[in-house]
Amino acid sequence: MTLLDGRSLAEIIEKQIIAQTDLFRGQKVVPTLAVILVGEDPASCAYVNMKVKACERCGVVCVAKKLPQEITQEELLKIIKNFNDDFEIDGILVQLPLPKHIETKSVLEAIDPQKDVDGFHPFNIGRVFAGIDAFKPATPMGVMSLLENYRIPLKGKNVAIIGASNIVGKPLASLMLNAGATVSICHIMTKDVGFFTRNADIVCVGVGKPRLICADMVCEGSVVIDIGINRLENGKLVGDVDFEAVSKKAAFITPVPGGVGPMTIVSLLQNTLLATKKRKIENNKKV
Q1: pLDDT band at 279, cuts 50/70/90?
Q2: Averaged over 122-151, what is the pLDDT?
């Protein structure tokens, strides 16, 4: 069994990002990411803090905007518009989930597609679906980077994805399809998830349910990508996979933490640098 070590790979990619930001600064171009956090959700605050620290490590300027839980949708949209209009801002990220009184779709659609480094705008989602160059959602992008780094082929492979969210499951399925895999997507209405996972070469799961995937649900020698993250009552962080049991059958498996999580953050920074390059360097050459 081989661990798919996302933490080590993320550190390597961060060094590449630092080198790129140094080159940008030599051209007097400063990559800048705006991060919007609404409310005091502990998990969201922790995620934003990790993203801010990653920006600091990599030389990306991070403009963190912390907003009260009771902010209106109109006020939030106005803040996003200001970031859209600000030339210095290359990427805009709105930390999800948002409070229930705010319509998430409207907020994501309000972000300029050229600054949508989270890859959630319908414009970018459509391009990913069609196999056209676009900002890819950070978590699916991180998963694909892990598989590529460990030279795990996708062409002709059977892939089972458990979780059909717009953030992970659906875009990951598009990326897998574009890479030549045969994809099955399981969700809450799927009658027998095990039927799909046992017949899959690669299993990807991200639904937020500890130990959902057990050993008898995967085949010998499979690749298991655990995207879930859950905190148990004893404070321990675990994924959606029964790691101890499944790792005895899998050929490759991601740990939690230290697997997909670090790759998600570094993918966000890669998207930010891509936005910087397109907006501040390539566009200037066209003028």
Answers
A1: confident
A2: 96
Every domain range in the chain assigned CATH 3.40.50.10860: 28-118
Assign domain 28-118 to its CATH superfamily. Answer: Leucine Dehydrogenase, chain A, domain 1 (3.40.50.10860)
**Residues taking part in catalysis:** 51, 95, 118
Q: Which two tokens stand for residue 4?
A: 């798919």
Pairing relation of β-strands 252-253 and 2-3? parallel
How confident is the model at residue 285, as a pLDDT?
Answer: 59
Residue range(s) of every CATH 3.40.50.720 domain in the chain: 138-261
| CATH architecture type of domain 138-261 | 3-Layer(aba) Sandwich (3.40)
The amino acid at residue 102 is I
N residues, the chain: 287
Q: What average pLDDT does this structure show over 159-167?
A: 96
Q: What is the rounded distance in angstroms from the CA atom of residue 215 to the CA atom of residue 169? A: 22
20-24, 53-57, 236-240: least confident range: 236-240
